[in-house]
Amino acid sequence: GRWSTTGGSHSTPRSTNPTVASSHPLDMTLSNGEKLSFVKHLPGSTQPKLFKDASGKKWVIKSTGVQTTQGITLTKDHLQNELSADRAYEALGAKVPKGELVRENLGGYHKKTEFLEGAQTYSDWQVGKSDKQKIVMKERIAQHFMADALLMNYDAVGMTQDNVMIHSGTLVRI
């Protein structure tokens, strides 16, 4: 998934009556009672979606049962593996968004990860940057090459350089 503030547009239906809460068919209630409101679809092969909670905090959600652009159906094990890889990256010193596996009242599992407001994909970040800035960022990406190799992450940067984000000047692996 891509966790930037750009990309993907989806119009969320809103009630014309201000006393009636607006809703969307993709809104969900988690098994702990937390309600998440659908905001928009995000770009990415796993078809992630952006949601917000009652406090307004935004979350990236990947869901079981979704078919990726490579034809793979996401399972609970797949999402758990992603979270385990995130924890391993963290233990090896790489920055990753905080996340957890959650269950929806309807039974589906979801990877719920913090949305990085204002983050840019590595590809988008490069626009307008000097050669020196680009070299420094490539060196920062390479600092965790051994973690990528250890985790067999063949797609660490992404085909379109969108699996690495820059958030407030910090490199974050997604």
The percent range for strand residues is 15-25%
Estimated helix fraction: 10-25%
Strand order of the largest sheet: 1-2-3-4-6-5
Give me the count of strands: 9
Summarize the main sheet: 6 strands, antiparallel
CA-to-CA gap between the ends? 7 Å
Q: Structural class, from secondary structure content?
A: alpha+beta
Rg, alpha carbons: 17 Å
In DSSP terms (H or I, runs of 4 or more residues), the helix count works out at: 4
Question: Which regions are unreliable across 5 or more consecutive residues at pLDDT < 50?
Answer: 1-20
N-to-C SSE string, H for helix and E for strand: EEEEHEEEHHHEE
What sort of overall outline do the alpha carbons produce when their principal axes are compared? globular
**Mean pLDDT, rounded to whole units?**
87
Features:
alpha+beta, single chain, 4 helices, 9 strands, 6-stranded antiparallel sheet, 174 residues, globular, disordered N terminus, 22% helix, 3-stranded antiparallel sheet
